[in-house]
Write a structure and sequence with these properties.
Elements (H helix, E strand, L loop, with lengths): L10 E8 L7 E8 L10 E6 L5 E5 L5 E7 L2 E7 L7 E8 L4
Antiparallel strand pairs: 1-2, 2-5, 3-4, 3-6, 6-7
């Protein structure tokens, strides 16, 4: 009998999508951790604007945190692929500008 082992899923937390006073664009911040709660450092992160297709890239810090800044208002899809884990995609993240 052949067994297939599935890669564990990443627990992906988008903690904020906001614009701060004095900034020209919005910010998406979050943390990536594995199912056991261990943070995932140096994970590549991409935010794709659903309307324009523009992609902004970053990577997580040593503590698993990431910041994607100076984003135009719009709806974004966040995605990451880390070796040993399933690819994670989270659509429908709204970034708004403060007036």
């Amino acid at each position: 009998m052949r067994h297939t082992r599935l890669a564990p899923a990443l627990l992906f937390l988008v903690t904020f999508a906001h614009a701060a006073f004095g900034q020209t664009g919005g910010v998406i911040t979050g943390v990536i951790s594995d199912p056991a709660g261990a943070v995932v450092p140096n994970a590549p992160i991409e935010a794709k604007n659903s309307d324009t297709g523009v992609v902004v890239s970053a990577a997580t810090s040593a503590t698993g945190n990431y910041v994607l800044g100076d984003l135009p208002a719009g709806t974004y899809e966040i995605r990451t692929t880390v070796p040993g884990f399933k690819r994670y995609v989270r659509p429908g993240i709204t970034v708004q500008q403060l007036q």
